[in-house]
Protein: Phosphogluconate dehydratase
Amino acid sequence: MAKLNDVLARVTDRVREKSRKTREAYLKQMRAAASEGPHRSHVSCGNLAHAAAACGADEKRALAKGGGPNIAIVTAYNDMLSAHQPLGAYPDIIKETLGGVGATAQIAGGVPAMCDGVTQGQPGMDLSLFSRDVIAMAAAVSLSHNVFDGAMMLGVCDKIVPGLFIGAARFGHLPILFLPAGPMTSGISNDEKARVRQLYAEGKVGRDELLKAESESYHSPGTCTFYGTANSNQMMMEMMGLHIPGSAFVNPGTPLREAMVKETARRTAATTALGEDYIPFCDIIDERAIINAVIGLHATGGSTNHTIHLIAMARAAGIVIDWDDFSELSGVTPLLSRIYPNGSADVNHFHAAGGLGFIIRELIEAGLAHEDVMTAMGEGLSHYASEPHLEGGKLSWRAAPAQSGDEEVLRPVSDPVSKTGGLAVLDGDMGRAVIKVSAVKPERRVVEAPAIVFHSQQDLMDRFKAGELNRDFVAVVPFQGPKAVGMPELHRLTPPLGVLQDKGFKVALVTDGRMSGASGKVPAAIHVTPEALDGGAIGKIRDGDVILLDAEAGRLEVKTGGGKLAEREMTAPELAAERWGAGRELFAGMRGLVSGAEQGAMTFQLAEQVDADD
Structure:
């Protein structure tokens, strides 16, 4: 095994030191909870009777006896989301499997699961980011009954897995495994989908053609196949050792997927404090595991959303990271994959070429991942440098392929797609921002052009359709941050800006909102912090200010016309209309409490963080 990369070691040590007080406080809480023993033994007979009232006779006896583990199932199932529809069948499979090993399982609770693909450009998108914290609290409520010895988190998509993770971290004395549904099978090519979207943006095809292409792309149960936030979630769960190996990208409705559901259940039961192989969540998720997740994001060109979510997830376990850590690690992590939007292939092609097992082995052998971590399978990330398969109908693992099956999709460290990672951090007098560069051609990573300030996505769309934007410009869309309107994704802006870029104009986007996890070919400085409503300079930009977005040098600056931004008056738009309807009025408290993007856009502060700050 190669020596650990010096930068990786240094960043890990820095994170460990930044996190010392909060991590110690978190672990103290978890050890105290674990020392009490199985919580089911402490509840009264009346409490236990309520918990078991709906169970069958065998399950009631097992729960009363307390000899075998009782596993909580927290599920994000609904049958509107393709990614979550397969989860509906899992609880029965889990319960039957655990019954065979002397364990029980109960659906402890459900959490909401909204789809950003459905809500893009709609009022409901303003709830998306905050849904993560709602999910975290719902997961905590689900586990609060204290009659469980372990838990399984069933979820896949954008805010769902981060929310489940945050909730799980608060019960970190339990073994907690994550279980996805896997991606849908491949539909039409991503190139064809992007082509039709762009033709629609240009007015060259109608809604019928667009809907046909979209339906042929998103066509069956399973996760969307592009490499956005949902699939980046699954990559991180593998990099952090919270799956059984290879769970991320096995299609739903297959014998292999069913075998993995059963094995996840068995492994959860096998690692409770009632047995000899106790592996709690808090022992798996430490500073090294979080750093491994960051490395995985860079190596695969993962979602920009995780420059927010992973920070919040880490803080739930007492670990403090920031964008400087992301940036420094990006400088030494090679980009090893080309998955749409960083290429034409989807995650099924990536998986077939060698997938995460190949990536993890390459990173370990290059000293670019912490191998000496605890995982759900025991010590060592090398457990995940493998791929699952059925051998005589039984689940087994073999070493990941020694060579990529398709170097257009998956590359070794010795010959990467790029020598540095897919995410970069920008800094300057406009604030701090992140940019996904893996899908942006090198010649388009530096844009210097006059600003055009837009009040909303629709404002830009209207002016594009009116033919007013055929020029070089930087689109500035302020007052989209978490305090202002909940930090929606501005994914609708990609097609029109892509059209203008293809016409030869130099264009870029700067916003304190988010883009989709599938941020595309147009350079986009997103998550600008401080946000406009928090006094950020992005709210003071005026039409004509010349802005430099330099992803190579990591700069975001006002070059001319800006003057002293601090002295400018800020005229906030009227936001009242953006704060009601579709339930948005219920989230006023969250908008008031939320932290900045680089602090994870969290709406709650954890007790050990308060204690550590005092």
In short: DSSP finds 23 helices and 16 strands in the chain.
